[in-house]
Amino acid sequence: MSRTPTLGQRPHVATVPGQRQGPPDDDAVLPQQPGGSRRRMWLRQALMLALGVLAVVTLLRSSGGVTNAASGLQAADVEALVLAAGLCALSYLFAAVAQRGAVALPLPLGPLVAVQLACAFTNRLLPGGLGTLATNGRFLRRNGLSPAGAATAVSLNSITGFAIHVVALAVAVPMLLSYPGKPFQLALPGWSSGPVLLVALAVVVVVVAGAASVRALPRASALLRRAWSAVREGAAVLRSPRKTCELLLGSCGVTVLHAVAFTVCVQAVGGTVKWQDLIAVYVVGAALAAAAPTPGGLGALEAALVFGLVSLGMATPLAVAGVLWFRLLSFWFPTVPGLAAFGLLLRTRRL
After folding, report:
1. Is 24 inside a domain boundary?
2. Which of 25, 72, 73, 187 is deepest in the core (most CB within 10 A)?
């Protein structure tokens, strides 16, 4: 005898990876953990945020003080900054296209763009990009994918983005190594204690990231098995030329748009470094900052980008101002609309 589910319940549906199923329970917006583990996670993330902010403040103090940075920020070309803000906003559309390309089922593009914007908020709450994985996974399950199918889709999207960045690195690193003046080996002009502080910051980042890596070693084999399973299951999605184009175009678009936005921000404050060298600095800096445990590479990315710009001959105050404008537009400003999008998606039960 069949039983009609009461209010608040949902019927049982057999789950097959990649197939539609009913929406998940309402309390699974973010990964569920025991109370003690959840408290430790929030404390650890708050500590990582504090360390990232401290690293940015240290960078400002060692590069001539907040006054010089503020003057560089105020002297920026407003029209160029508006263009950079538009490029950063457009990256959310490309991120949505990439995620849609990783799913065999048709997905509405508008809500998917809102989900990517909501990730700008959830990524401040969870370390290592887990906010993006959790939010996208939740949305995919709400739209009919099984837990295994949603995990495969977000993994395929992440693997594609990683592969594209590796290709970009293969182009950027030789460009910088062949640059006249041997970049990344020059002294930092005008930094009285800057080199010492920068080295100390790098040591802190490496030690913390190394400790996290050591803790993750026992799970390395399990992660590799999951990645291989995602590749095999994602091969079915890649049989569709349209899905493959969406996935590749979206992933490339996110990287290119952020790199160009960084270039525009640096040029907006008066930087004269060639645009191709600026893009190479961004690609290498983003790769180095990916090892940092702070949200969005906070602190590590700023230091890497400033160091790269100064190594290419740019004045330190201008380099700091350009990097700060880029991070304000790409990291900090989207947090508020991301929170609004997250709340809207919750109210409309899309998450």
Report:
1. no
2. 72
